[in-house]
Each structure stands twice: as structure tokens, then as C-alpha cells.
Design goal:
It contains 24 helices and 16 strands. It is of the alpha/beta class. Among the domains are: 121 residues, Phosphohistidine domain (Glucose Oxidase, domain 1); 109 residues, PtsI, HPr-binding domain (Enzyme I, Chain A, domain 2), CATH 1.10.274.10. An 8-stranded mixed beta sheet has the order 1-8-7-3-4-5-6-2. An 8-stranded parallel beta sheet has the order 15-14-13-12-11-10-9-16. α1 runs antiparallel to α2 and α5 packs antiparallel against α7. The chain is globular, with a radius of gyration of 24 Å.
């Protein structure tokens, strides 16, 4: 009898191969005290472990082929940066000194503190960075506890040829090593769609499913299994008929993905000649090469938070200006939309541990609320963005707006800064567009009011869906309720698009829904003409646009809006998509 287990689909595709369970226990750490005369030895022991971890990651990075997209090595670089950050390289040493405890216990205490900080964030993307911290700390702990089981790299030998890995969790470095050894797909017991592990799987076109609890119990080593990365299903003990069905589906997938490369230099133009703008989301200067590889129309969301993270001080105006100027220059005349700081609590990341924890950080002081309360944080960023606008087309986007008064406050501050810059003979674009992210239901309902005072709107679906449905998509107990096809969500999206249309301003979408090919035709039918997404999703979305008749999608999409349940809406969406296959 066929065994089928459902998880969260994070990377599309079909894989058929033998299961290989990766047994790697979590480091167990107990509170251990050390005598004062061992203090220096314990600190040296921690530093040596960090050095070993650093060497391991450097070696892994060297194994990444030069032809691989730059965002792949960027994931390893993120872990290297974390290793060298004072939060891991210095803070645990202070704990060892103050508490006379072992390096392992000091690391655990520091990890618990850092995880609590990330858990308090409401931005779904930033919140999942906690996984990276856990991965890095566990790497050091394995070295300290002699549990280090670094996967071997044998040149020219693929020890895991055609294997499907089943594991508790995988780090980006694990994925690079495992693919080097021949892994064709993976399944993990934990994880989510926004983790670096999931994003890396999509970049490498590795079928992947996460969140199958106790997966290692259900599947045996070396038994043949099938991964359906579209549906998030793992199958074992299948019949010949089922295997042949998936083999054919696998061949079709491979042909489809290989054909997408032909679209790199072609415009996103529907079959009835309606142009659609495809922009990319970015957060690091290193992302620029990946954007050029996919020939995007611009950056629809540049997350400025990276400048403020993993440091004890604040970036000054000059540092921010140089960073934004580099991004604008790299885009060579294509527009760059810079989102103002979107962080939670009342102090930037490294100082959050001293802040009083809010009762509900998701509804607390963050994003534009934080910036308006702290002009010393906000004004240098606004000055830097305005100065960067003199070097190329820049748009500024305000996150988490909930009322028009916030818009008036920002515009008033901008006007004052413009007057200062003019008096100082500093160049800037007097007409730099200012837009807002619509991600709070109150803003969506009042989007017709927001549209009167802004130059553009951008729908942040990740938070809009979470706030509308009152669920945390990172929480494994309730994330099954996270449904973009919920009628309330679709009605709000349509309302925002109409508000922009009536006001004569563009409306974009920069949430994950924009890069989900299942929803592309629905969004086109609802009137969306500007999408911003992860670079690796652009070609597939472009292909769908190029093979769609928008005049037929409009009435079909309006039918979806009449559905009473998310499941019914999803069925209608699947029918719409099936008509083009």
C-alpha cells in the first residue's frame, strides 16, 4: 500500500530516488561551571571552535562552481558574517567570564537570547533569520562537543548519487555539500518557506518539502521514494502506475525549466499585448549580479535593514548614502525602491536585549512607528535616500502604514530635509516618488485615502495575510490557516488595485504571493501590472504572463472573488491555470 505524507512545499519539481536519512543529533548542553584558573583555557577553546567552523564554511564556499548564481554563495557568506559578529564571537566570552561557565553553556545562553529577539520580530522574512543563528551556533557546538560530522568532500566522487535526503533540518552549507555529493531533493522535519534553506533550494531547483514531523520514522534508508515539490507530498511503496505518472511529470518539469532561459531578454508581454513590469526583491549589494542575470525591470523592494543588523552602533548618513548609491549605480538606470527601516521594538537589533519586551511585538513599535518616534534614527536614512536619488531613479517606500496621518508626518519631515539639502547645495531628486506598503488591513480598507497622498502603493502580502487572518505563518501549529486564497484577502487585494487605478498611480505587489506562479493569472485578472519577487521566480512568472490572455482572465478572476471559502477559490484558480496547459 502506498505511503503518502504531506508537508510544506518550498521548492517545486519532481524527484525519484533512494532515501538517505541524515542522522545528526542535536548537541546536548548542560549547565557546567568551571574553576577560575581554567577561564583563559575555556575562552581559547571557544575561539578555536569558531576558527574551525570558519574554516569549514570557507572550504564549502570554495566548492561552489563559478557558474552558480551569486546568491548561493551569499547564504554561506551570511553564516560567515554571523560567525565573526560580536554577538557570537565576543558576547559568549563575556558570559564565560561573568558566570564562570563552559563555552557550550555560554553559547546556549547567547543563542536563547538571540532567538527570543528574532521571535519578537513581525517581519516574516527577518523572523526566519533565527534559523541561520541556530545553524551557526549548532555548528560551533558540534565542534566543541566532538559531534562534528562535517560531510566529506571527495573530489570526483558522488557518494549520494540520486539520493533524497531526509533530515531533522539542513543548513545552507549542508545543502551545498549534499548537492555536491549527488543529492537530488530533500525532506526535513522542521523549517518554513521563508528560511534560507528553502530559498536556497528554490535557487538550485532542488525539489524540497519541509515540516513533515517524524519523517525519519516513516521512511527507511535506501527505499525508493517520490518527492512532489508542487503538492508537498512524499510517496513510498508506490505502484508501477504511480511511478510512471511521476516519471512523466518529472520529464515535463525538466523540459519546462530548461525552456525558461530563453525568456531572459524578452519582455513580460501578455498574448493580448499588455505589458507587465517584473521587479526583484533584494537586501544585499551581492544580490545585484543575480538581478542582472534575470534582466529585471528594477528593484521593487530593497530591504534597508541589512545596514542596521549584526552591529552595536547605527550606520550614519554617509554609510547609508554610499550603500544606496552603490545599489542605484549597479542597476544602471533601472528604478530602485528603497523601503525605509522596518525593524521592531524600540532599539535596533543588537540593543534589543536591553529593551523591555512588548506584550505583543507584532502590534507594537516597529517600522514607520519606530522611525517617527525616533527622528535620530529616521532622518539620517531619509537624507541618505534623498541624496541617492540624485544618482539615479529612486523611489522611497514607507512600511506598515496604518493611517494617513503617518503619511503627512513623513512628507513634512521630507520637506524639511529637502529645504536643508537645498541650502547646503546638495543634489537630490525634488520629485522622488514616495509610496507606501499596504500590509495592514486598516490601510487596505482605506487604500483609496492613501492613494490620494502617495505616488505609488505596494501590497505586502506576507503581513497583509497574517494580519487579516490573525495567524503567524511561522508558527507550525497555525500556519495551515495561512491561505492567500482566503476571500477576505482577495477582496482586499482587489480593493487596493482599484484604489490605485482610480487615483492614477501604480500598484505593485512585493510579497511572496507575487512570485507564486499559482496566483500569477489571478493577479493579472484582478488588474495587477507590477510584480516584485525573488529573482529566481521571475522567469517562471514571465512565462505565465507571455502565455496569458488578460482580457479572458478579468472575468475569470471576478468569479474567484465570489467564492465563500479559500478552498473553493483555490479550485477556481486551478481551473483558470489548467486552461493554459
Amino acid at each position: 500500500m502506498t505511503l503518502a505524507k504531506k508537508g510544506i512545499a518550498v521548492s517545486r519539481g519532481i524527484a525519484i530516488g533512494r532515501a538517505h536519512k541524515l542522522e545528526r543529533g542535536q548537541p546536548e548542553v548542560a549547565e557546567t561551571c568551571i574553576p577560575r584558573d581554567r577561564l583563559d583555557d575555556e575562552i581559547d577553546r571557544l575561539r578555536r571552535a569558531i576558527d574551525v567552523a570558519n574554516t569549514q564554511l570557507q572550504q564549502i564556499r570554495k566548492k561552489i562552481p563559478g557558474s552558480t548564481p551569486t546568491d548561493i554563495s551569499g547564504f554561506i557568506d551570511t553564516h560567515l558574517l554571523m560567525l565573526n559578529d560580536s554577538a557570537l564571537s565576543e558576547a559568549p566570552i563575556q558570559i564565560i567570564r561573568s558566570q564562570l561557565c563552559s563555552a557550550e553553556w555560554a553559547l546556549k545562553l547567547q543563542l536563547d537570547m538571540l532567538v527570543s529577539v528574532f521571535d519578537e520580530m513581525d517581519d516574516a522574512y527577518l523572523k526566519t533569520r533565527r534559523d541561520d543563528v541556530i545553524h551557526v551556533v549548532n555548528r560551533i557546538l558540534r565542534i566543541l562537543t566532538n559531534m562534528d560530522e562535517e560531510l566529506p568532500l571527495h573530489e570526483g566522487v558522488q557518494l549520494l548519487q540520486n539520493k533524497i535526503i531526509i533530515a531533522d533540518d539542513l543548513t545552507p552549507a549542508d545543502i551545498v555539500l549534499l548537492q555536491h555529493q549527488g543529492m537530488i531533493a530533500f525532506v526535513t522535519e522542521s523549517g518554513g518557506p521563508l528560511s534560507h534553506t528553502a530559498i536556497l533550494a528554490r535557487s538550485l531547483k532542488l525539489p524540497a518539502i519541509v515540516g513533515i514531523h517524524h519523517a525519519k520514522r516513516y521512511f527507511q534508508n535506501d527505499e525508493e521514494i517520490i518527492i512532489d515539490g508542487d503538492q508537498g507530498i512524499v510517496l513510498a511503496k508506490t505502484s508501477d502506475v504511480i511511478k510512471e505518472y511521476y516519471s512523466e511529470k518529472q520529464r515535463a518539469f525538466r523540459l519546462y525549466y530548461s525552456s525558461l532561459n530563453k525568456l531572459k531578454n524578452k519582455p513580460a508581454l501578455s498574448m493580448d499585448n499588455i505589458a507587465v513590469h517584473l521587479h526583484a526583491n533584494a537586501e544585499l549589494p551581492e544580490d545585484m549580479q543575480a538581478l542582472h542575470d534575470t534582466k529585471v525591470d528594477g528593484i521593487g523592494l530593497f530591504r534597508s535593514e541589512y545596514l542596521f543588523m549584526n552591529r552595536d552602533d547605527l550606520p550614519d548618513e554617509e554609510e547609508q548614502f554610499n550603500a544606496y548609491q552603490d545599489i542605484v549605480s549597479a542597476m544602471k538606470g533601472k528604478p530602485v525602491t528603497i523601503r525605509t527601516l522596518d525593524l521592531g521594538a524600540d532599539k535596533p537589533l543588537q540593543n534589543l536585549q536591553q529593551a523591555e519586551c512588548p506584550t505583543n511585538p507584532a502590534l507594537g513599535l516597529r517600522a514607520i512607528r519606530l522611525c517617527l518616534k525616533d527622528p535620530g534614527l529616521f532622518i539620517p536614512q531619509l537624507r541618505a535616500i534623498l541624496r541617492a536619488s540624485a544618482t539615479g531613479p529612486v523611489r522611497m517606500m514607507i512600511p506598515m502604514l496604518s493611517n494617513t496621518q503617518e503619511i503627512f508626518q513623513v512628507i513634512n519631515i521630507l520637506d524639511n530635509i529637502k529645504a536643508e539639502l537645498s541650502s547646503q547645495n546638495i543634489e537630490f531628486d525634488q520629485n522622488m516618488p514616495v509610496g507606501g506598503m499596504i500590509e495592514v488591513p486598516a490601510a487596505a480598507i482605506s487604500s483609496h485615502l492613501f492613494a490620494r497622498h502617495l505616488d505609488f502603493l505596494s501590497i505586502g502580502t506576507n503581513d497583509l495575510i497574517q494580519y487579516t487572518l490573525a495567524i503567524d505563518r511561522i508558527d507550525e501549529d497555525v500556519n495551515y490557516l495561512y491561505k492567500p486564497s482566503h476571500p477576505s484577502v482577495l477582496i482586499l487585494i482587489k480593493q487596493i488595485i482599484e484604489a490605485g487605478k482610480n487615483a492614477g498611480i501604480p500598484v505593485a505587489m512585493c510579497g511572496e504571493m507575487a512570485g507564486d506562479p499559482d496566483y500569477t493569472r489571478l493577479l493579472l485578472g484582478l488588474g495587477l501590472r507590477e510584480f516584485s519577487m525573488q529573482p529566481n521566480a521571475i522567469l517562471e512568472v514571465k512565462n505565465i504572463i507571455n502565455h496569458s490572455l488578460i482580457k479572458k482572465l478579468v472575468p475569470a478572476s471576478h468569479e474567484v472573488l465570489q467564492c465563500e471559502h479559500a478552498e473553493d477559490a483555490l479550485k477556481h484558480i486551478q481551473v483558470i491555470n489548467a486552461q493554459y496547459h
